[in-house]
Protein: Acyl-CoA ligase
Amino acid sequence: MGSLGFWRLAQDDPGWIAAVDPDGTEHTAGELLADADRLVHALRALGLRPGDGICGLVPNGADGLTLYLAALQAGWYYTPVNWHLTGPEIAYILADSEAKAFFLHERYAEAGTKGAAAVEPARRFSFGRVDGFRPVAELTAGHPGTPPPDRTAGATMHYTSGTTGRPKGVRRPLSGLDPDDAAELMTGLLRLFGITPGRPNAHLVTSPSYHTAVTQFGGTALHMGHTLVYMDRWDAEEMLRLCERHRITSSHMVPTHFKRLLSLPEEVRNRYDLSSLRWMIHAAAPCPVPVKWAMLEWWGDCVYEYYAATEGGGTVATPEDWKKHPGTVGSAWPFSALLIVDDELNPVPAGTPGTVYMKMSGSGFEYKGDPAKTAAARLREYFTVGDIGYLDEDGFLYLCDRKADLIISGGTNIYPAEIENELILHPKVADVAVFGVPDDEWGEQIKAVVEPAEGVAPGPELAGEILRSLEGRLARMKWPRSIDFVTDMPREPNGKLLKRKLRDPYWEGRDRAI
Structure:
């Protein structure tokens, strides 16, 4: 293998600025390396062995990065915990992952303390002061900041958000490789987008690191020698400021970010030098075609798209691909494959929507502790996360919607994403969700929930104006029958819409048979 992988790079150039915290604190590669090494020595002294798991409930920044780097060279599974979870939800993940150590940042002390019961008190550690937790600095004190012996590659184990039931950990077998060799193999993901190793390159972490893609893209950029610049919470103008300040070359974003960026006044958008941008990658939700065109016009040919899942496999669309196939989420990775099937699991022709299945060579995974769920998601060596889409004649994938979000009205399948993509273009709409609500005659009718743009008053007049804007753009059968308004749309910080929070109240007291 070559010379990639954080640990090799840090030994060769300990003075390289490897990470910048949201408050601007810089961390050299040498400092991060020593901290991760001390942590491995300390946790091994407590009895942790390869195959064990650790959990971290920590904000974006060097603390979580240290946990990640320790686990990935000690053969442990590292599970970053969603910091929006409640005490019982945290307790479930700590117990289900069989965590042998729990690291809690003082910012999340209240929920984290309530959820800590699954981990014995002697293995609870804190960044900052948390009652009942031992400070990490005390844990590592006296341990050497030198490479631990018998290094072996660990892995992350992320929990899927799960549209139904409790989240499940996606667990892959450990490779047994040298950690740097395993890290170098990981860089294949970023190479799909043409990303090159070395400096000067900087990757902006715009979303919480507990998300799979955020960890993967950030961690892999680090293993290529790029500096990680962390945001604490996403803000459109702050992102532009950081891109200019740190000469950002890559980032991982979602279409909601694009919509907010495009809503900035033109003088704000033009204020910042974005000439360093080279690989601005987006995923997590379909991007409305006019929004993507607008970003390409503003940023140039640096906007890449992909479709993938925590479970493995996916597609990529270069700017050139997308311009030739507007609306696509890309074609299969070289080491992945796509299959579209009908409800009887038979392959369908090009242009016909069906359930999207993917596979990736060497990607054996299981939903930890749930063989039934693992089997239900599989079709031979393929798996699905329940998305509906179709392939064109050239093998490019277009997503229609999630199977769970499909609206069936009068026996007709209606895809909410198609309607959302039209409604979001209205200048008075900041965010929108479309879903089915009960209708005694039709089974379901189409409901839109809109977050008005700043300074716009909600009400019947606005609803009428929004609906009229669909004239000539969307068949009337796809128009929402009604529009409700909310102050803030319930989204995860990575942009994923929590649609069930909006939809469930309309279905209370009914057995949903659709």
The longest strand covers residues 429-439. The chain has a mean pLDDT of 89. The chain is about 30% helix and 25% strand.
